[in-house]
Structures are given as C-alpha cells and as structure tokens.
Amino acid sequence: MALPNESTPVADRPLGPVVPGGSALRPGAGLLEGRLGRLERLDAARHGGDLWRATAGQDHLWTYLPYGPFTDAATFSRWLAERADLADPFGYAVIDPEGRAVGTVALRNIRPEMRVVEVGHVVYGAPLQGTPLGTEAQYLLARHVFEDLGYRRYEWRCNTLNAASRRMAQRLGFTIEGVFRQDMIVKGKSRDTAWHAMLDNEWPARKRAFERWLAPGNFDAAGRQRTSLSDVRGNDR
Questions:
Q1: Which domain holds residue 36?
Q2: Residue 225 covered by a domain
Q3: Burial class of residue 5, CB neighbours in 10 A (0-12, 13-18, 19+)
Q4: What is the CATH number of the domain that holds 84?
Q5: What's the average model confidence in pLDDT over 150-156?
Q6: In three state form, how does the secondary structure of the chain look?
Q7: Residue 4 included in any domain
Q8: Which of 19, 50, 52, 8 minimizes the C-alpha distance to 150?
Q9: Between 59 and 29, whose confidence is greater?
C-alpha cells in the first residue's frame, strides 16, 4: 500500500509525488510592509510622477524589456496606466521610506491551479539600484508568494545576455535550470531565455538568509553590508 506522500505506479510506470492542497491564490491589492520600505499595488496616478523621475534618462533599464525606453513623461504615463490595469502581470511599486515610488516589480504568468508564478518586469530606478531596499523588495514578494498565496514554484526568467538579471537571480537564491534557445523575439531580436526557479521547500532556508542579511547589524554606520547575501546563504547550509 502506497504511503500518502508517494505515487502509485500505473502499469508499472512511476508517477510523481502526491501534491496535497488545492490551488494557490491570485495576488490582490494590499501592502507588503518591510523595515526599509514597502510594496503596494501599482497605481499610475499615484506612482507615475515618482517613477518617471526615478527612471528618466536611463535608457539602459529597458534594454531587455519588450517596452521602453520612453521619450517623455506623457508617453511613460500612458504606458504605466495600461500596465497598472492588468491582472497578469500584477504590478507593484517599490516605495522608499520617504513614500516615493522608486521602482516596479510584478508577478506574471500566474497559474494558481499549478501553484506556479513568475517574478518579472523588474525596473529599479537610480534611487533603488544597489540599495538594501532593492533586496528587501524581492524578499517581501517571495515571502508573499510562498507564505500568503501558497505557490510551490517561483520562477525568474531573463534574456541570457542580461548578465545583471542573471546575477541578481542567483544572488537572491534562484537556481538556474537551463536555457530555452530562440525562445522569443523581443524588439525584433532573437532571445534565448535563462530559466531560474525557487521552490517552496527551499524557501525556509532562503528566508533565513534574507532576514539575516537584512538585519540592521549587518550594515555599518554608512549603510555598507558587512556580509554579502551569498555568503550568508552559504553559511546557512
């Protein structure tokens, strides 16, 4: 007799482990509060001005995205209004301690019945780049995905040529799983896509590493990290 967490062979062909529980939840409006800032549902009227100021003149931010760069605030605002109305991708604004929107991130390819979701559309303006808040925003979203919404697989995909995105995924604790060759055509160019993922059974260790890295004692008086996130995660193994 098979145990509850085992599969039952059919015609001597093995199946995967039984997955308990039902569907995951879709993301909804609500704040994801952190020590350094917060994530809130993207709103063009409320966040548009701040986001334009945070990203204007930084054309490189849009190199690997299917949209942008934007020539003026009005064009950017129209695009943002369209994005903010979508349920998938479900956009968030990253809010700094002064209440300013300094970046965006989204949950996309949302598949509640499979309990799989992807993080994407990551655009960090100049005030957010290289800051602890940028990392905390990713921690808050991952915690929400696994602990509040009930997903079992959290994906990160990017252009294989986007070295910064690949480094960020691996720094945050996503595992590289492979490359889909000639996966997309983006802005008229062929794209090979690197797939990364984090699983629910990996999350507790990733969470401990995030929280140890984000602890106030890990930063000196100038705000510089004492121990890198990769080293914290390595010490947690």
A1: 32-235
A2: yes
A3: exposed
A4: 3.40.630.30
A5: 98
A6: CCCCCCCCCECCECCCCCCCCCCCCCCCCCCEECCCCEEEECCHHHHHHHHHHHHCCCHHHHCCCCCCCCCCHHHHHHHHHHHHCCCCCEEEEEECCCCCEEEEEEEEEEECCCCEEEEEEEEECCCCCCCHHHHHHHHHHHHHHHHHCCCCEEEEEEECCCHHHHHHHHHHCCEEEEEEEEEEEECCEEEEEEEEEEECCCHHHHHHHHHHHHCHHHECCCCCECCCHHHHHHHCC
A7: no
A8: 19
A9: 59
Q: Is residue 88 part of a domain?
A: yes
For residue 236, what pLDDT is reported?
A: 63
Rounded to the nearest angstrom, the gap between the alpha carbon of residue 214 and the centroid of all alpha carbons in its chain is 17
Report how far residue 119's alpha carbon sits from residue 173's, in angstroms, rounded to the nearest whole number.
13
Give the whole-angstrom CA distance, residue 230 versus residue 69: 32
More confident: 30 or 134: 134
* pLDDT > 70 in the chain, percent: 95
Other Cβ atoms closer than 10 A to 19: 10
Q: CA 158, CA 151: separation in Å to the nearest integer?
A: 20
First to last CA, the chain: 35
Task: Give the pLDDT band of residue 2 (cuts 50, 70, 90).
Answer: low
pLDDT value at position 77?
96
Tally of structural domains, the chain: 1
CA pair distance 142, 135, nearest whole angstrom? 11
What pLDDT sits at residue 3?
Answer: 55
pTM: 0.93
- Of 1-15, 28-42, 62-76, the poorest mean pLDDT is in 1-15
Q: Is residue 18 part of a domain?
A: no
